[in-house]
Every structure is written in structure tokens, then in C-alpha cells.
């Protein structure tokens, strides 16, 4: 199908001999829709590359786009789509860049009274449709990759374990807690306890917007696990609304120490360690 | 079957678990320990599990059992060096070890026993 093309395929010959004019017209057609978000030179380079790899397959009808003949074209479109996705282009903008070539080709063959050529243009247009859909797929895949990367980064970023004092660690939790995050927090905190040999841990939930029974359950599990390892956990920064929710849900924190603020929790931990914080000069007065 | 050695340091018995525990070794350890406490009159037992990577509910219950046995001889039990993964497993299994004390490492565990001993008017780590 593709092999017989090179020789005697009218459309391919027409495309080849008019390469420069076609690419220029294509770039012009697309540049107006993208309104200066990408440079003409960039488009020119991308489209010329696409066009060159499109030529050998122009005689095909694009029925088997996953085939070997289209490998180069596929990877080019994939790259284009991915880079567009990262630049915040919408998928229809990327796809219509491909479709724009149709119009350019139609204008080229317009007025030529040749039934054979008409048929070839028709199947070429089907091929372009298939390629446009390919960019859609690549776009969706690229976006999914971005989302996955970001959620992983978020998971890492939002769960730092910080050392407040010799033997006192704190985990300031921010955002929404779900099972996966609480699991990460739990593991990170317990590992940090072993590494630093700390006997106190403070879980600060000032930045947590909502607490439900499941989240409370996870927090309790973390505290109990820390206790098993020989460390004491304090929960601090419970906001008024959250306190109401906790009571309304009937969650029991049992003998787990809870404090209003991180400062109170730190003072509590220090006192348990036998450290007293005194302002300079007050020592004599006391 | 491998047996877990029980070492005596002053008035404290040190059980350091360095092997993969089988149910048989756990039962043997409980017997050995009961005999050793009664023979030495130790006032504290430290179980070091820093080398233990895998636990099941049977081993989880072992700590509580040992603690109960020791209590009959008026000795306190401290479990030291539990790894995070082990702690998480025990919590997920719903085992909280009840009255067993825990510490991050051996040194802190010994200090806890020392403090308890002092509160009760014993003289530190000296044997009675």
C-alpha cells in the first residue's frame, strides 16, 4: 500500500514539488489560531519535519496507524503533543494544527479536474484525521504523566519531619489527609524517630482542613505505633471546627495528649524531658 | 530448633533476639525466661528486637505473655528497638502490647528499669 506509492502517486508528487509553499501556508494557517504563543520559526521547524516524514506515507489511507511505516510520524507527533501539553495548549489546538494541513492541500488541488487525484486527496484527508486523533491520545497520556509526577511531588513535599529540639520531632501536616498520605506520614515519622533517637513526636494538624473518622483512625494508629517503639506522640493544632467535628463523630483520643498549639506541645515535650524554659533574668527572681 | 540466649546484667535479664523466631523457639524462650527469672531473682527483663524484621500475631502476643510471666515474679518488662515496619504491623494486627513498656534502644530501656527500680527503693542495677 505504501510501497507502491513512490512511483506515480500524483498527490505525493504534487506535495513533494510544492513542499516549501505548503509548509509556509500551513504555518500561516496555524500561527493565527495560536496567537503568538509559539514563534513562527518554531512552527516552521516542527511542521517541516512532520511534512517530510508525511511524504512517504501520503499515499496510504492511514488505516493501520500503529504499523511500522508510521513509526517515525507517530514519535514526531507524540513529541509535538507532549511539548504542547507542557506549554498549556489545549488538545484541540494541537489536533487542529494537524487538520489545518487538509485545507492547505485542498486549496492546492482545487480546480484540477482529476478524479484519481480527488480520490487520493480524500484518503490523505482520512490519514490526517487519524494523525489528529493520535495527537489527542498523546496529549492525554502526557497530561496523565504530568499529573502523576505532580501528585508524587506533592506527597513528598507536604510531609516533612522536622527536628524542634534535641529528642523532639514535629510533623506539620497541611492540606487534605487521605489514607495514602497518612501512611507516608506514619512511615516517615517512625523512621525519623529511629534515626534521630527521639523520644517525642508532635503531629501538628493546624493546616488540616477536615478530619473524618478514617483520618482520626490513622492518626491514632500512628500514635500507637510510635508508642510501641518507645516514643510518645502529641497531637497539636486542632482547630475549633475540627474539635467540634471530632466530638460530634464521637472519636475518642483516649490517653493521647492533645494540645491547642505547636508551642504548647513543644513545652509539654520539654517538660516531660525535664527541661524548663526560663526567660533570662527571671531565674534569680524565682 | 534455635534457642534465644538470655544474658544477666546485674538485676536485669537481657533477651536479644537475633534469629527468625519460630513458634517453637518462642515457647522455649518463655519457659527459659520463667526459670531464669525465678533462679536469679531479676527485677527487670529487656527484650531487644532491633534485629527482628518480621512479626506475626503469635510473636506479638509473646511480648504480652512474657510481661505477664515477669510480673508474677515482680519484674518489669521493656521491649526495645522495635522497627517502624514491625510497629505498623502490630498496630494493623490490633496488638497494642497492653502493659509492656517500650523504649527506642537498649540504653533507654535500661534507664527505664533503673528509674522504676529507684522508685521502688531498689538500688539501681545491683543484684539483690
UniProtKB/TrEMBL annotation, chain A:
Keyword Phosphoprotein: yes
Domain of life of the native organism: Bacteria
SUPFAM superfamilies, alphabetized: SpoIIaa-like
Residue stretches making up the STAS domain: 158-269
Pfam families: RsbRD_N, STAS
InterPro entries: Bact_StressResp_Reg, RsbRD_N_dom, STAS_dom, STAS_dom_sf
Protein name: STAS domain-containing protein
Organism encoding this protein: Umezawaea endophytica
Automatic annotation (TrEMBL), chain B:
Annotated ranges, domain STAS: 2-113
CDD domains: STAS_RsbR_RsbS_like
InterPro entries according to UniProt: Bact_StressResp_Reg, STAS_dom, STAS_dom_sf
Annotated protein name in UniProt: STAS domain-containing protein
Species for this entry: Umezawaea endophytica
Lineage: Bacteria, Bacillati, Actinomycetota, Actinomycetes, Pseudonocardiales
Amino acid at each position: 500500500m505504501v510501497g507502491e506509492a513512490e512511483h506515480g502517486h500524483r498527490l505525493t508528487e504534487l506535495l513533494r514539488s510544492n513542499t516549501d509553499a505548503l509548509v509556509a501556508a500551513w504555518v500561516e494557517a496555524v500561527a493565527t489560531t495560536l496567537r503568538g504563543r509559539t514563534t513562527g520559526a518554531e512552527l516552521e521547524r516542527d511542521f517541516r519535519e512532520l511534512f517530510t516524514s508525511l511524504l512517504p506515507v501520503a499515499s496510504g489511507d492511514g488505516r493501520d496507524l500503529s504499523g511500522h511505516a508510521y513509526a517515525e510520524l507517530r514519535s514526531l507527533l507524540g513529541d509535538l503533543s507532549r511539548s504542547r501539553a507542557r506549554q498549556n495548549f489545549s488538545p484541540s489546538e494541537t489536533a487542529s494544527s494537524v487538520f489545518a494541513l487538509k485545507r492547505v492541500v485542498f486549496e492546492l488541488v482545487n480546480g484540477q479536474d482529476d478524479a484519481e487525484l480527488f480520490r487520493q486527496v480524500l484518503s490523505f484527508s482520512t490519514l490526517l484525521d487519524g494523525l489528529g486523533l493520535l495527537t489527542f491520545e498523546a496529549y492525554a497520556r502526557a497530561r496523565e504523566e504530568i499529573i502523576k509526577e505532580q501528585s508524587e511531588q506533592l506527597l513528598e513535599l507536604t510531609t516533612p519531619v522536622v527536628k524542634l529540639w534535641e529528642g523532639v520531632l514535629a510533623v506539620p501536616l497541611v492540606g487534605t489527609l487521605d489514607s495514602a498520605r497518612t501512611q507516608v506520614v506514619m512511615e516517615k515519622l517512625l523512621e525519623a524517630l529511629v534515626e534521630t533517637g527521639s523520644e517525642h513526636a508532635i503531629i501538628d494538624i493546624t493546616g488540616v482542613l477536615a478530619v473524618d473518622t478514617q483520618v482520626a483512625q490513622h492518626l491514632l494508629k500512628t500514635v500507637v505505633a510510635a508508642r510501641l517503639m518507645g516514643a510518645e506522640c502529641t497531637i497539636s493544632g486542632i482547630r475549633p471546627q475540627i474539635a467540634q467535628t471530632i466530638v460530634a463523630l464521637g472519636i475518642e483520643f483516649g490517653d493521647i495528649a492533645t494540645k491547642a498549639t505547636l508551642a504548647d506541645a513543644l513545652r509539654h515535650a520539654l517538660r516531660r524531658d525535664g527541661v524548663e524554659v526560663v526567660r533570662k533574668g527571671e531565674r534569680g527572681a524565682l | 530448633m534455635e534457642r534465644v540466649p538470655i544474658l544477666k546484667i546485674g538485676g536485669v535479664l537481657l533477651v536479644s533476639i537475633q534469629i527468625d523466631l519460630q513458634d517453637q523457639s518462642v515457647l522455649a524462650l518463655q519457659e527459659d525466661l520463667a526459670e531464669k527469672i525465678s533462679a536469679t531473682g531479676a527485677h527487670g527483663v529487656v527484650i531487644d528486637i532491633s534485629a527482628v524484621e518480621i512479626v506475626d500475631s503469635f510473636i506479638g502476643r509473646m511480648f504480652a505473655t512474657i510481661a505477664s510471666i515477669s510480673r508474677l515474679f515482680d519484674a518489669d518488662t521493656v521491649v526495645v528497638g522495635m522497627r517502624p515496619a514491625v510497629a505498623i504491623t502490630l498496630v494493623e494486627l490490633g496488638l497494642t502490647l497492653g502493659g509492656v513498656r517500650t523504649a527506642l534502644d537498649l540504653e533507654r530501656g535500661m534507664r527505664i528499669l533503673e528509674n522504676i527500680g529507684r522508685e521502688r527503693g531498689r538500688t539501681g542495677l545491683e543484684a539483690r
